[in-house]
């Protein structure tokens, strides 16, 4: 029996208070996510239960009970507090998926700081932009990633503490402090900051079409939504072994790679490895994974490797599969049903929504290729893009819109009220994605409503790529768009006009690709560069990115009357 | 040629994917993709490097994470497109 039972009944009778009651949220005046993910689970008598089973890429395994998570997160909270960091200041985590990432996340929250997770593959420029914007006070990183921090720290006067893990006694520079979780004094009791419902918790950066990346700020009461969605959509139950493949540098990796499973007291497994079909299947077999939350890109890569390879492994432990990050194509749902005997359930949400808002639920009829229906407590529809009024006719394309007020909705874009306010129109939060509803109330994804590139489930802002491209000595002007890709849905394609004296060549293309990869991230690296004489522009001189994108997708170009040249 | 090729790929991986001060050893059997030294996105720049160097086109269905996971695997893959002398 699934946790949600009848979706229709749940939707009809839902109140977020149900989640609060189950969590006993606010008991003793405590609202801190860190408490609900560690100390509370121990108080429920589950201190000896495994909370985290971690496996490194070379096969080593580490186990952490909920009591280990409680004590070790206390260590981080204690250490950071003794440094003198003040409540509400930002503390960044910038490391690979090692146990300390997950545990420090809880520790930072317990101490009352705002945790700012960043993807460890970010290059120094992407890292700088986000630390500078948040005026981050401290960063926790590992020796492996320290050189990127060193390259930018002189430009970050507010960054007072650079805490280096896995340093092994190597020389450190000013502001750098070595920290080893295992060696630090045992902190059995830590005075957890109680917070309150609206106290800020997590700052996740996401990309938009224009301007710098935006920091979506969440609050501690987001756990009300993360707990219940993990319970009902992921269907987490007490004896489950749960695997979320997302990196906590992104919101899925924190909402459902930390908060969701741990507030439910579930055992989760983490594999610090890149994609590898055989190793992934072997991992599921070894740890007897029951619930698996992954991304369409990974599923399509598994499909690429074929069905025969699946037969080499015993994957019978799997009982529920869910997907997130980009639309899950119907073929992937049908394929998974064929090879695993289980369909993948698509789920939809964003950094800004903090938790799943539309999904396919256990027990509900799946229409392969559909996003599913709104989560109980979420009022979702599609609205007309001009007046922002709900479209009632099934099949009519509009913008996905949500009624504001669910617990995990972002409360601000960091220092960017103007952009935040623009997300709301006519009483709706506008997601920025186009979709339609069918006659049974299922949502069907159509595409983005802006120029943001969704590659392998990660949003990449074209502006950030174009700005970085202009820093390359050969580039005069540039445009970045998403082009279709069978595995990643979209990949970055750049159009580049060169400065006088430079000529297109294979070497230059590769040099520009690697330049962006190192500066920003592998996700932002153009997988193709087209050298052009000039870029199409409007009369006001703005690059017609949409025109270039339409060409890549074979779409109608539409009205080109405002173009200066073509 | 196999030895030259091995050196060419190892040097490229070290130059492009490791930090300047990294003391990580790369051999022909070091996992590249599964260890996270080269992620699946960055694999494209490694593939592009090889395609441009040898003037070949590696089809997408051959460019799997497995085929790029070690230098030895990459050499095996290249062997399908260029003549590699084992000596």
Automatic annotation (TrEMBL), chain B:
Pfam families hit by this protein: PP-binding (PF00550)
Listed Gene3D superfamilies: ACP-like
Carrier domain: residues covered: 4-82
Name of the protein in its database record: Acyl carrier protein
């Amino acid at each position: 029996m699934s946790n949600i039972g009848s979706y229709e009944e749940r939707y009809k009778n839902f109140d977020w208070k149900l989640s609060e009651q189950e969590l006993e949220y606010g008991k003793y005046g405590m609202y801190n996510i860190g408490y609900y993910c560690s100390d509370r689970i121990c108080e429920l008598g589950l201190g000896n239960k495994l909370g985290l089973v971690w496996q490194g890429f070379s096969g080593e395994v580490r186990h952490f009970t909920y009591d280990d998570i409680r004590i070790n997160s206390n260590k981080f909270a204690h250490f950071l507090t003794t440094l003198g960091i003040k409540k509400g200041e930002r503390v960044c985590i910038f490391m690979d998926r090692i146990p300390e990432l997950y545990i420090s996340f809880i520790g930072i929250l317990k101490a009352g700081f705002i945790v700012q997770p960043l993807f460890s593959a970010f290059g120094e420029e992407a890292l700088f932009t986000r630390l500078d914007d948040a005026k981050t006070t401290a960063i926790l990183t590992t020796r492996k990633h320290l050189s990127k921090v060193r390259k930018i720290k002189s430009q970050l006067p507010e960054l007072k503490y650079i805490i280096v893990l896995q340093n092994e006694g190597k020389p450190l520079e000013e502001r750098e402090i070595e920290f080893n979780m295992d060696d630090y004094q045992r902190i059995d009791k830590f005075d957890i900051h109680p917070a309150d419902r609206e106290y800020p918790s997590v700052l996740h950066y996401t990309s938009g079409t224009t301007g710098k990346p935006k920091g979506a700020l969440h609050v501690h009461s987001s756990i009300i939504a993360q707990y219940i969605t993990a319970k009902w959509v992921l269907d987490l139950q007490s004896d489950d072994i749960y695997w979320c493949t997302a990196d906590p540098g992104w919101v899925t990796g924190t909402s459902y790679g930390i908060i969701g499973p741990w507030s439910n007291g579930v055992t989760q497994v983490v594999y610090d490895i890149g994609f590898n079909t055989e190793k992934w299947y072997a991992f599921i077999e070894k740890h007897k994974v029951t619930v698996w939350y992954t991304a369409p890109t990974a599923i399509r890569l598994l499909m690429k490797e074929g069905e025969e390879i699946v037969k080499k492994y015993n994957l019978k432990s799997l009982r529920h599969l869910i997907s997130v990050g980009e639309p899950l194509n119907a073929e992937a749902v049908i394929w998974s049903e064929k090879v695993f005997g289980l369909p993948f359930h698509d789920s939809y949400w964003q950094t800004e929504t903090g938790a799943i808002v539309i999904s396919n639920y256990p027990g509900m009829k799946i229409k392969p290729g559909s996003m599913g229906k709104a989560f109980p407590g979420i009022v979702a529809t599609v609205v007309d893009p001009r007046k922002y009024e709900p479209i009632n006719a099934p099949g009519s394309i509009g913008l996905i819109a949500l009624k504001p007020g669910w617990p995990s909705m972002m409360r601000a874009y960091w220092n960017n009220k103007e952009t935040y306010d623009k997300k709301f129109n006519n009483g709706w939060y506008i997601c920025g994605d186009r979709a339609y509803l069918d006659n049974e109330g299922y949502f069907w994804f159509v595409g983005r409503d802006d120029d943001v590139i969704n590659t392998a489930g990660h949003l990449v802002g074209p502006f950030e790529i174009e700005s970085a491209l202009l820093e390359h000595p050969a580039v005069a002007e540039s445009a970045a768009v998403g082009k279709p890709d069978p595995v990643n849905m979209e990949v970055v394609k750049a159009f580049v006009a060169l400065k006088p004296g430079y000529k297109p060549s294979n070497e230059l293309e590769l040099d520009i690709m690697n330049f962006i990869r190192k500066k920003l991230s592998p996700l932002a690296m153009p997988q193709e560069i087209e050298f052009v004489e000039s870029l199409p522009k409007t009369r006001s001189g703005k690059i017609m990115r949409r025109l270039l994108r339409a060409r890549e997708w074979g779409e109608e170009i539409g009205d080109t009357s405002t173009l200066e040249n073509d | 040629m196999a030895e030259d090729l091995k050196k060419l790929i190892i040097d490229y991986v070290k130059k492009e994917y490791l930090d300047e001060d990294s003391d990580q050893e790369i051999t022909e059997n070091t996992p590249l993709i599964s260890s996270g030294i080269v992620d699946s996105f960055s694999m494209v720049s490694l593939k592009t490097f090889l395609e441009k160097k040898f003037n070949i086109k590696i089809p997408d269905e051959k460019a799997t994470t497995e085929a790029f996971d070690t230098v030895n695997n990459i050499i095996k893959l290249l062997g399908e497109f260029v003549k590699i002398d084992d000596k």
